[in-house]
Amino acid sequence: LKSRNENSPGMLYRTVPATLALAPDTTYRVSLDYLCNQEGYFKLVAGRDEGSTESPPAEALFSNGSWQVQPLELTFTTDAHDDWYIGVSKIEQEKRGTIVIDRVLVEEIP
């Protein structure tokens, strides 16, 4: 996935239950590699859709803007609901940044 010189606020990419069903009451680890040209402009999030107005309960910042391949990992536990997603969100609307994401792995942790 690549987002070039992104200027949109909020969620850029996200999963949907039809393509990645996250089971209720389960712990997951998401790991990926990324390139980013701006430090702290994007975050990896995990959260709920239905009826949730809060910020996602789990997030990890894409903190390296050196345009060198970096690993990122996020571990989270779903609650009793089945509407969880994993996504990439832009933090600030006024700033532009480019991010490339590769080698995404979602693992259930026993």
Describe it.
This protein is an all-beta fold. The model has no long low-confidence stretch (mean pLDDT 89). It starts with a strand and ends with a strand. It contains no helices and 8 strands. The chain is globular and about 35 Å long. Strands 1-8-3-6 form a 4-stranded antiparallel β-sheet, with no helix packed on it.
Attribute tags:
110 residues, mainly beta, four-stranded antiparallel sheet
Count of DSSP H/I helices: 0
Strands, total number = 8
Q: If strands are numbered along the chain, what order do they take across the biggest sheet?
A: 1-8-3-6
Strand content: over 45%
**Helices and strands: which structural class?**
mainly beta
Sheet of most strands? 4 strands, antiparallel
Distance between the termini: 29 Å
Radius of gyration: 14 Å
Question: Stretches where pLDDT falls below 50 for ≥5 residues?
Answer: none
What level of helicity do the residues show?
Answer: under 10%
Give the overall average pLDDT: 89
Give, in order, the helices and strands.
EEEEEEEE
Inertia-based shape: globular
Would you spell out the secondary-structure blueprint of this structure?
Layout: E1 2-6, E2 10-14, E3 27-36, E4 42-48, E5 58-61, E6 70-77, E7 84-90, E8 97-109
Antiparallel strand pairs: 1-8, 2-7, 3-6, 3-8, 4-5, 4-7
